[in-house]
Amino acid sequence: MRIGVMLRCIDERGGIGVYARNIVEELLNLDHENHYVLFFRSDKHLNRYNGAPNLTRRLLPSRSRAWWDQVVVPRAAREERVDVIFNPKFTLPLLGKAKGVMVVHGADWFLDEYKQLYSLPDRMYMRVMMPLYFRRASAVISASEFSTRGFVEHLRGSAAKLRTIHYCGNRIFHPIADRRTIQAVLEKHALHDPFILTAIHYDSGRKNFANMAKAFALARKQGIRHTFVVCGREVERYAGELPLREMGIEKDVRFLGWVEQEDLPALYNAADLYLYPTRLEGFPIPITEALACGCPIVTSKGGVFPEAAGEAAVYVDPEDPADIAAGIRHVLEDPALRQSMREKGLERAKLFTWEKCASLTLALFQSLSLL
Questions:
Q1: Segment 124-133 long-range contacts (CB within 8 Å, at least 24 positions apart)
Q2: Model pLDDT for residues 144-169, shown as the tens digit of each residue
């Protein structure tokens, strides 16, 4: 079988890009029988998977995403005689003979309680195009049961094609026994005090940083002495939007900006708490990274978060800074609780592995060859 993979999203900084890079690596590690044709829109990751014998790379430049999806890739797929075309993001070529598999990372465009997080044009585009992509797909991978339920409820006929396959953090996320390794990363980022960590990107609605900052300010007034370390794409923009000085935490919040993946495991290992009371996620990769490193977690009630963290987290109301602050203090002021959460987190992390994700994905591809 020849499997074509659309990798326009591989350049993205964020969960979808992490998923795309990891799922291809794991499929190539696992599968030596089928042939993979990787379609790249840019050359940034063109040589990322050197050494795989069952691999063809095609660089297909295009200024337009829609043209790339609907014209450039289908033409290349015909040339490469692809049997299955796989997109780690939520589009597919609407025309072509190859069976199609796409990944949906959330159903939030269809859910009324989250409509304020998206512009009207974005919601209308998804309501028009997503049913077409589902109709074209032979199978659709959903990142979580929460996402799957959203599609089943709001998109007629989707249930038969959906398959939930969880993903997770990279293999580099694990407990680090060598304190020198952790200390080198802390010194690189000038971190000297005990700290709370969050890894997000700039998104004033979905990521809920304003309520995190209010909760941190309350927890500081109530006695905690930790620094709040914030890393991720464009997080510095929060400093210009929020009155951190008036809140009394200007010197206690550290915005690191984008932190490369190889530094993140040390930060999770060093943090006393991972704070993640975001409003909406399709499946929260950072929670699986924290679990794998044994970092205690405070995250949101409801939605997908209990599906990810299970009993290894303290759950709070993301809209209530006082409740978030109480969750922070509950964890930081109880060493025995933190130790218990570390142990539960490491056990929980065993449920989410890239080997499992790739194995289930490959089995799905192979099942399509029998149709």
A1: 129/91, 130/90, 130/155, 131/155, 132/94, 133/90, 133/91, 133/92, 133/94, 133/102
A2: 999 999 889 888 888 999 999 998 88
DSSP 364: H
pLDDT recorded at residue 123? 76
What one-letter code names the amino acid at 345? G
CA of 83: how far to CAs of 37, 53, 80, 94, in Å?
A: 10, 19, 9, 15
Q: What is the DSSP code string of 53-117? A: SSEEEEE---S-HHHIIIIIHHHHHHHTT-SEEEESSS---SS-SSEEEEEE---GGG-GGGGGG
Phi, psi (deg, nearest 5) at residue 162: -80, 140
260-279 mean pLDDT: 96
Residue 320: CB atoms within 10 A of its CB come to: 16
Cβ neighbours of 310 (radius 10 Å): 14
* 75-80: long-range pairs with CB below 8 Å, 24+: 76/4, 76/37, 76/39, 77/4, 77/37, 77/39, 80/2, 80/4, 80/37, 80/56
- List the one residue out of 175, 177, 199, 173 whose CA is nearest residue 353: 173
Render 109-156 in DSSP notation, one character per residue: GG-GGGGGGS-HHHHHHHHHHHHHHHHH-SEEEES-HHHHHHHHHHST
How far from the centroid of its chain's Cα atoms is residue 336's Cα?
30
Any idea where the domains of the chain sit in the sequence?
A: 2-168+353-368, 179-349
Q: Is the pLDDT of residue 7 over 90?
A: yes
Q: How does pLDDT run across 232-249, given as a tens digit for each residue?
A: 999 999 998 899 999 999
Q: Which CATH architecture has domain 179-349?
A: 3-Layer(aba) Sandwich (3.40)
Distance linking the first and last C-alpha atoms of the chain: 13
pLDDT for the residue 113: 62
Helix axes 15-30 and 354-368, enclosed angle (nearest 10) = 70
Q: Helices 209-221 and 321-332, interaxial angle, to 10°?
A: 60
The whole-model pTM stands at 0.88
In the predicted model, what is the mean pLDDT of the chain? 92
Kindly report the CATH number that applies to the domain delimited by 2-168+353-368.
3.40.50.2000
116 has pLDDT over 70 = no
